[in-house]
Amino acid sequence: MIAINVALFGFALLDTGALLFLSIYILITLSDLDCDYLNPMQCCDKLSKWIIPELIAHGTNICLILLTNRWFLLIINFFMISYLIYCFYISKPKTSISFYDPSEIHVRGNLKSHIKISFIRMVFHLVHFFIYLYLFVVSLLTQS
User: Fold this and answer.
1) pTM recorded for the entire structure
2) Membrane-spanning residues where (predicted)?
3) Three-class HEC string of 71-91
């Protein structure tokens, strides 16, 4: 059982690290759009292809946490993935192509909203990275 915890937290650490770097990439890309280094079409093309992999990574994390009965981590991750599903699929306007729509990203402060959401996701992944790192080290120390 302890070896399963080591494997789980090792994978969760890698997965959350990848999601953290993805959140930083999204934040940098949106900041480049804000400073007019990118046009909206380039920015939205770059960001739209990362929606499904982010959801898959969160879903994999949730499934693995569910197997080890870490209920607090499961609830927090479940709220995050449900919020992402709400943002990416439910709350987007019907006329939009995807969550990052080039024709609507500068309308009504959408860009600032996207930057704020990306910053919150980055902080979420950063906190979870250190939580998983702590749990990984604890499970390694209790294994021996």
Assistant:
1) 0.87
2) 7-28, 71-90, 122-141
3) HHHHHHHHHHHHHHHHHHHHC
